[in-house]
Input
Amino acid sequence: MLHQQTLRQPASFSGVGLHSGARVNMTFLPAPPNSGIRFRRTDLEGKPEIEAGVDFISATNRSTSLAKGGAKIHTVEHVLAAFAGRGVDNAVVELDANEPPIADGSAREYVKMIQAAGVAPQDEPREVFRLLSPISYEKDETSISVFPHDGLKITCTSADSKGRFTQFFSLEVTPETWERELSGARTFCFFEEIEYLIKNGLIKGGSLENAVVIRDDAILTTEPLRYPEEFVRHKILDIVGDLSLVGCPVAAHIIAVKPSHAANCEVARQIAQQMRQPLDAARSFAPPAPPPAAKPDGDAEPLRDGDELDTARLMKILPHRYPFLMIDKIIKIDGARIVGLKNVTINEPYFQGHFPNHPIMPGVLQLEAIAQVAGIMMLRQADNFGKLAYFMSAESVRWRKPVRPGDTLIIDVELTKSRGKIGKAKGTCLVNGETVSEAEVTFMLIDRS
Output
């Protein structure tokens, strides 16, 4: 079983952004398991973070940009390719500008940063998504097909609109082949594109120090080409970076002809949609969504260790309402552990049929209570207010004793994983200190429709 990896220590680098031309200081930092890759803007108030995920793609013109709220980060693909290629699952990228330093136009400098920091294994397993069915994308001269495969293989053909400098390359991408065959491939452009790029406010930091320029049949560069097929290898480098926005490693064979950031990101979205298919199936068994609840008012505050939530405050965070609100109050928050309370009364509507002469709280509702308590840990964040926590799976489920009217149900939950919109938790329901049920649940936060 493969385990997640992060960095052993910080590593820093300074330079200029390719498109912005601004001076920027960048630091790679270790991050906890299941947190993914995050960009942190230290130059903005509150140091906002943007997760490297398909939900935050904001632009794909000549590079890939991410945005969340008022924070933006441009040209992320080379940094993401370095982490994905080396197998780093969790890291924070701190920047004091809106774009990473371009360095020499490849990912070589970022690889050096990872080498200087060192890579550390983590306790959590690495989840690799194996493609469920083929995916295809076509637009104009661009086509990308994705097929199930044991590992990550990328086969690519690149050329300009006139068919010049057509190159082909195919590679099984591993940490070793990534560093040796792809990481040093530099960005490039055709001479006739430069005027357009400048007029559109791009490549302000561009030079022959960080890009290869093709003019007619001549190649303008400060050093010889690093690979015979450097241009198509850089296209593959971009695919590795853009594909990492799926949020986990992908086992697939990608066949690309004249790829672009827009095409790469669209394919990443389609893969992410396949990953969510188990959730779509789970929705078939979920209760109807309650009517829209009001957004939290101004006195809704972040939860802190030691906080208790009465019903009024709880309902500012949790969107569930009668008859599917399975918590009366939160009595304890301690790090990743949270404890809820449910007073089980004879007035619960499910007792009318479960069972009229022998009322017992359904076990699936105890599971729902565990998921709701766990969801509070994620729903309390401002960006997640008003969302719903849907079951994806339940494992190691055990019902040990019946729960009857008059019982006080204590729901003790430890959040074991939180990555993007996915959460995993281990929960135990107790009555009078005795375990009545327990389970490990996986849930996803979704927007209300």
The chain has two domains: 3-275, 286-446. The chain has nine helices and 25 strands. Residues 291-299 have pLDDT under 50 and may be disordered.
